[in-house]
Amino acid sequence: MLKKYYHFISRLNLNYVIGALTVIISGIIAWRVNSLGLTTILTDQNAHLNFARLVTDSMTPGLSQIGFWPPLLHILMVPFVAIDSWYRNGIAGYLLLAPFLIIAEISIYKLCLLFTKNKLLSFLGAILLLTNPYLLYLTATPMMETLYLANLFATAFFIARWITTNRFSDLLLAGLFVSLTTLSRFEGILLVPLTFLIVFVQMLRRKKAYQEIEATLILFLIPILMGIGLIFFYGWIIGNDPLAFARGEFSPGVKTSIIETEKSYTKGDLLTSFTYLIHASYYMLGKFQVILGIVSSIIMLLFYRSFAVWSASVILFSPFFFDLLAVFRGQVSIYVPEFLPYQFHNERFGLYWIGLAIFAIILFLNILNQRNFQGNLATISKKTFIILVSITLIILNISYLYKISFEDNFSVMGATVSAIDPSIKDIAENFSKEHYDFGKILIMRIHFDPFIRESELSLNSYIFEANYQYWEQSLESPWLFTRWVVMSSNSLRAHDKIFQRWEGSPVFSKYYKAVLDNGSVRIYKIKEEAVRKYANQRSLDTSKIPSLNEQIQYWKPENIYEQMKIQTK
Amino acid sequence: MEKVVKLLQEQVFDFSFLKQQASLLFLKIFKFLDHPHHSENGPVDFSHEGDFLFLPEIHSSKKHIYLETISFVVIFLSISFILLLIFRFLTGWSIITFLSSFFVLVYFILMVFKLWVVSKALTFPLVDFTQEEIKAIKDKELPVYTILIPLYREEKVIRQIMKAMTAIDYPPRKLDIIITLEEYDHPTINAIKEVGLPSHFKTLILPDVQPKTKPKALNVAFLKMRGKFLVIYDAEIIPEPDQLKKAYLAFKKFPEIGCFQTRLDHYNAHQNAITKLFNAEFSFYYDLFLPGLQKLGYPIPLSGHSVHFKREVIERVGAWDPYNVAEDCDIGMRIHRMGYQTGIINSTSLEEATSGFKGWIMQRTRWMKGFIQTSIVHLRHPFRFKNEVGGWKNFLAFLITVPGSVIINVLNLFYWTLLVLWFSLHPAFIQDLFPGFILYISFFSFVIGNIIFTYFNLLGSYKRKQFALVKYSLLSPFYWILLAIATTRGAIQIITKPHHWEKTKHGTHL
């Protein structure tokens, strides 16, 4: 009976089956997430949507708006967020990421198949990945994780296949996917030295001549360095610093340090860092899966004396290692409710080694499957054990998926430190519907991504830090350019340049009055009469002042002051 | 009554004369639509020994400017100008900005086209035969095969070519090797005498008539050949010994194919930086580009040697154009126009890569000048050419591969100059040349395009297992600067010395 099913599955092209299942299951979860209002609950989700949207909808549209985060998600999302409704409800993220989830699934399936030659077991690997609730959640929302994991898994697969078959095109594809991984998340950067080393060692193992090793490494590295080079080049052109992504004013690191005002509880303590990460993994993968994953990894590495298996494992483990170091060094913080400060934060880091956990479990089952035991009873027991473990895993994963998405309603996401303040939506709606008439709004976007998205105003109504000259001029004399000013009024205000520049200033009070304040956001409106008086005193043409005239949507910052001057004979 | 009506129809309402006159006037204005040309009346004339031009003059570069060309250029420019004005009215862009955007788009299309062609080549096997298949050929079934070797001032490589030709695995009695010589080229004649020719070699002293070009030598020799198939080998070529047998099998297996191009490689690839880059370029061209063109059924610009033809095909197309300095590219197009396909055999001919800067520039100038000549000749009747070459797709492929190569090479020089200016002086006018999305396309074409094409050269070298050359291929952008200089020189020479053949010096590696 089992054999019959096995032969049936062997004949199927499982890539299509995996693709179809992924579309169906991820579609259901995307609908669920959207109906729970969780698609844009995290600050980062709003930021990603805005980064991509600003390329087409901004005072300064273009690639300069992509920002200094790893840019792949933003670039790929541009056509999706250009459609207004997809941007507003955040579904643009899912529409982009669903194909990448399929790539991730198929990569894991093929990676397992490469070593097990067993379609059924490899298919189990894909199913385990597909039924992880948090991976599905992150696919349903505009986050970088699915993009990163898809490229990471594809890298592992192509490197492993290159080592196994020596097919040169696999090496080139591996190089391409390493490049895409580095452009997806900073964790990907670790792949550059890692894969370089793997390729180098493999060439040595094959006893290749020096010139062939050199040529192979050059061809492998070019697409990778091109990806990194583009990030440096972008930083140099837009931020005047090739390392703007790491140390620039608007780099993600700076944003993290601003938002994460709480202290790091893991800094300098490797064991604590590891404990936090493992506990995060319990939430993201399920406790049983984590333990089985660790045990299987050890068994797999002991039994598989294969360089290809080891290389794939190291690649799949790299994000865990990267984040462990980052948490240990205090560059990022991770919180889990079991330990101080008893909250969730960056708990999703626990998900990133899911590829290794699944790969190891499948290879462990394959080791068992291939082992010859003497006697029928032993053989039947072995098969029964494998089937039981497989079924248990599927049941556990599906029940975990059901529990998290339909009973627990992804409560972890609402409980993280980076979840947005629900009152932001209210004040943004109140502002855009009850108060906003026309004109530009001065705002520091790094703190107000959710406000900007929730306000449902066109993004070119805002002037913020990535509008460069507009931002500088408006920050200096806001009353001439921006009719509205939005400032932080909570703990973030220490980092808010508008707050720092104008809060408490009598000059500012002369031209603006506060119209809304919810304790975290304060919104000011221009005092038109005061500005007209200001203009008259300085012989400025009020019909040319952007803050007073609805029809002035764009102006050239370099000559706006000349234009505002009344021409006298 | 009927008679009256008939009379009226014939005498008063008969517009046939007017129609005829209008048609004549139309064809006079739109001369490029008027074909066949009067020089095409009658069959190909192989008795023309004045300059050995057998082709109808309209298909030759003997005279560059015909009324056809002038009318086409005038009409094309007029339509372009009107479109430009309309576009300007609609967008408000300046003419310079528009032109800049147009050329950026041309760049982008070229990049996409090359990527498309290479992607096809990656999965396209070359025509090949096993050693068993070659060994199974019986001598008696082999036809007479002609080898044409045009020589001029090649005294240094005579021994090498003799050695290469005698190494060919083909029954000598079925080989018809014709060496052409200029009567005043005593050093080469003496060198041949010194070496001594085997009986199946014959020499042919060329008549002292203009033009003094390789295609004229080929045409003279063609009249004397007796083979069913023919191949041209230049003085320094070392073909794989079984190449002729492979070509014979290929012609037998693919009767619809009119000629077979072989792969070219260099035996002095490691001589210096120029030869290394030259080799990388050839690796890409012959292993990744031409096979893609063949798979897609596009016309192929052939190389000047190591191309195998059927005699009947050369007869039908009227042999080579003695006035075209890239007669190889031209005949490739004409063969395609006649409805024949071109195949590529997996057999390599080794040649000498030009190693000196001056020699390289001169050789490349000639090739690019020849590309311009070929473009002019084939675009005399553009719509006819489009129909004959196989429709719009093939026509566009020709535009990209032949005139497009010339234009892109010249534009490269212009854009690189702009880039250097931008990074050094930041002049504002440059920013105006690249409005909005054009900036992104040009950035993409420039950065990604250059990286991709450099990468192709690397891949080409790697595919040929020339591992030591891979790192040198990273210098390809510098090589393209030389290419741009040579092309610009070729464009100038087309006016100053249109038929001048700048001889490539061989034997510098010896």
Structural features, described:
The complex is a heterodimer of chains A (569) and B (510). Chain A is mostly helical and 569 residues long. Chain A has helices spanning 2-11, 14-35, 43-54, 72-81, 84-89, 91-116, 119-130, 133-140, 145-165, 168-182, 191-205, 210-239, 244-247, 252-259, 270-285, 287-303, 307-328, 354-370, 376-407, 411-415, 422-435, 445-454, 469-476, 478-481, 497-502, 506-511, 528-537, 560-564, and strands at residues 440-442, 462-463, 482-488, 512-517, 521-526. In chain A, helix 22 links the parallel strand 1 and strand 2 (462-463). Chain B has 510 residues and is α/β, with parallel strands linked by helices. Chain B has 20 helices and eight strands. An eight-stranded mixed sheet of chain B has the order 3-2-1-4-7-6-8-5, sandwiched between helices. In chain B, helix 12 (327-337) runs parallel beside helix 13. Chain B starts with a helix and ends in a 14-residue tail after the last helix. The interface between A and B is medium-sized, with 17 and 16 residues.
Topology summary:
The complex is a heterodimer of chains A (569) and B (510).
Chain A: H1 2-11, H2 14-35, H3 43-54, H4 72-81, H5 84-89, H6 91-116, H7 119-130, H8 133-140, H9 145-165, H10 168-182, H11 191-205, H12 210-239, H13 244-247, H14 252-259, H15 270-285, H16 287-303, H17 307-328, H18 354-370, H19 376-407, H20 411-415, H21 422-435, E1 440-442, H22 445-454, E2 462-463, H23 469-476, H24 478-481, E3 482-488, H25 497-502, H26 506-511, E4 512-517, E5 521-526, H27 528-537, H28 560-564
Parallel strand pairs in A: 1-2, 1-3
Antiparallel strand pairs in A: 3-5, 4-5
Helix pairs in contact in A: 2-6, 2-7, 2-8, 3-4, 3-22, 4-6, 6-7, 6-9, 6-18, 7-18, 7-19, 9-10, 9-17, 10-12, 11-12, 11-17, 15-16, 15-17, 16-18, 17-18, 21-22
Chain B: H1 2-12, H2 16-29, H3 67-91, H4 95-121, H5 131-135, E1 145-150, H6 158-166, E2 175-182, H7 186-195, E3 201-206, H8 214-224, E4 229-232, E5 238-239, H9 243-253, E6 257-266, H10 273-296, E7 307-310, H11 311-317, H12 327-337, E8 341-351, H13 357-378, H14 382-389, H15 392-401, H16 403-425, H17 428-433, H18 436-463, H19 467-470, H20 476-496
Parallel strand pairs in B: 1-2, 1-4, 2-3, 6-8
Antiparallel strand pairs in B: 4-7, 5-8, 6-7
Helix pairs in contact in B: 4-10, 4-18, 10-18, 12-13, 13-20, 16-20
